[in-house]
Design goal:
The complex is a heterodimer. Chain A is an all-alpha fold. Helices cover 72% and strands 0% of the residues of chain A. Chain A contains six helices and no strands. Chain B is mainly α. Chain B contains three helices and no strands. In chain B, helix 1 runs antiparallel to helix 2 and helix 2 runs antiparallel to helix 3. The longest helix of chain B is centred in the C-terminal third of the chain and has 31 residues. Classes of the chains: A mainly alpha, B mainly alpha. Chains A and B meet through helix 1, helix 2, helix 3, helix 4 and helix 5 of A and helix 1, helix 2 and helix 3 of B.
Chain lengths: 167, 117
């Protein structure tokens, strides 16, 4: 059953990613992006990362997709039907992306160390288990991430709103 | 009582890595081929997601739980930091897009060439 669920949601997220990069309508691209993020959240559940699945749904599907939709709304000009065109060199881009995928696939399939099936997992993955790690071994990066988020918040507000000249 | 005890898992590590590689390549194609700058940011998010799948899959499959039980969720922590950085990146990136749009009345990267000399 886990295998069936895996293939359903892996194919769903890959097909949605295909829709993101091929859709002519950028609003459809943004909605496909939310679908792809949700499929990846199900893959996290299958990998015993329950907390990360919740974070993925909250931050990516909930926040990032909505921010992208707002940016689309604020920057749209002309007809929405042709709002997401390819540029002149999309053929080279397809070639490079296909070569990268073939290279990664050859490495992955050729490495015998990675041909492993799951062993029983006993180490959790809940918010409690991760907080123990985040507040002891990874405390400095955790605080740095907090500072980064604060600075990004202030920077985004200043960039989007502009600084008022004080005279 | 984890959610994932629903079924018996038998999908291996390489399958997850191939899913990650496929998402990464689609994001790479989007970065190379799109004209709208918001579409390029979306493709970058796809690539970051693919990297997260790889972190969690490696952590799930080839971590030896018997040897190093204190660091056993390191891949999850790395994925969490990637999510934090991606959230900050998308906030600042979209603010930049809106500012550029306000100055140039365009969201087309082909027209953003005023640093070219």
């Amino acid at each position: 059953m886990g295998t069936i669920v895996f293939f359903i949601f892996a194919i769903l997220s890959i097909a949605a990613a295909w829709g993101v990069v091929t859709s002519k309508n950028i609003v459809h691209s943004a909605l496909y992006l939310a679908l792809s993020f949700s499929g990846v959240a199900v893959l996290y559940v299958l990998l015993n990362a329950d907390f990360l699945a919740a974070v993925q749904l909250l931050i990516y599907t909930g926040a990032v997709s909505i921010m992208v939709v707002f940016a689309v709304m604020l920057t749209l000009r002309g007809e929405v039907y042709e709002s997401n065109p390819e540029n002149r060199s999309w053929g080279w881009g397809a070639l490079v992306a296909a070569s990268v995928f073939i290279a990664i696939a050859l490495v992955v399939l050729g490495n015998a160390d990675w041909r492993v099936l799951p062993t029983p997992w006993t180490s959790g993955g809940s918010a409690e288990d991760m907080s123990l790690l985040l507040l002891t071994k990874f405390m400095i990066p955790f605080e740095a991430a907090a500072v980064l988020l604060t600075i990004a918040l202030a920077g985004a507000v200043i960039l989007a709103k502009g600084v008022k000249e004080s005279k | 009582m984890s959610l994932s005890n629903l079924g018996h898992l038998s999908v291996g590590l390489s399958t997850y890595l191939l899913v990650g590689a496929m998402l990464f390549s689609l994001g790479l194609y989007g970065v190379f081929s799109k004209r709208n700058i918001v579409a390029i940011l979306m493709s970058i998010e796809l690539m970051l997601n693919a990297v997260n799948i790889n972190f969690v899959a490696f952590n799930r499959f080839i971590w030896n739980q018997k040897i190093d039980v204190h660091y056993v969720l390191t891949g999850h922590v790395a994925a969490l930091f990637v999510i934090v950085v991606a959230a900050a990146e998308v906030a600042v990136g979209l603010a930049l897009v809106i500012t550029i749009y306000r100055n140039r009345q365009s969201a087309n990267v082909d027209e953003f060439n005023w640093l070219k000399w």
